């Protein structure tokens, strides 16, 4: 019977982020559906134009979701009553120069006015592969060291690797208090610091008998 040992190692790598991903919500409430829809489009276009003037390329601008709904209230004796219409959409913006991100965001907020919401911001990497590779190397090293320690305590040594598995890793945006109204055009500093990428790996090794101890000649 082959003896084995299975160990999960974890590792983390840190680096300064070079990409800011911003989610801008556009929301307008008007008396008619047509007016709400039209004004939402105008607000989004104004914000996009401001971002372009601040160096954001078209490939880094994406519209996500479009919603037009009636705003309903309950009136005693009358049931539900339409009080207006709300149109909304989301702009997903990639800012590749973090230092200029505050000015670009401020320009979009000023252009969009009260129809703009800041729904989230995420700092990451343009090319996360290099940072991920460092985290994976650290995870492997952690697994190997743990396995070696356990094998030694079991009076054995590590043999061949029998299996390797890596669970998928993911992360979400860092929220800014949910959907918040951006009422000031002044820029807010975005502190970059360092962002971390974590990885884990599960490795199964064969356990071998320890090497014989050489007797002194």
TrEMBL record:
Pfam families: SIMPL
InterPro entries: 26kDa_periplasmic_antigen, SIMPL/DUF541
Gene3D superfamilies on file: Protein of unknown function (DUF541), domain 1 (3.30.110.170), Protein of unknown function (DUF541), domain 2 (3.30.70.2970)
Transmembrane segments: none
GO biological process, one term: DNA damage response
PANTHER family the UniProt entry points to: SLR1258 PROTEIN
Protein name: SIMPL domain-containing protein
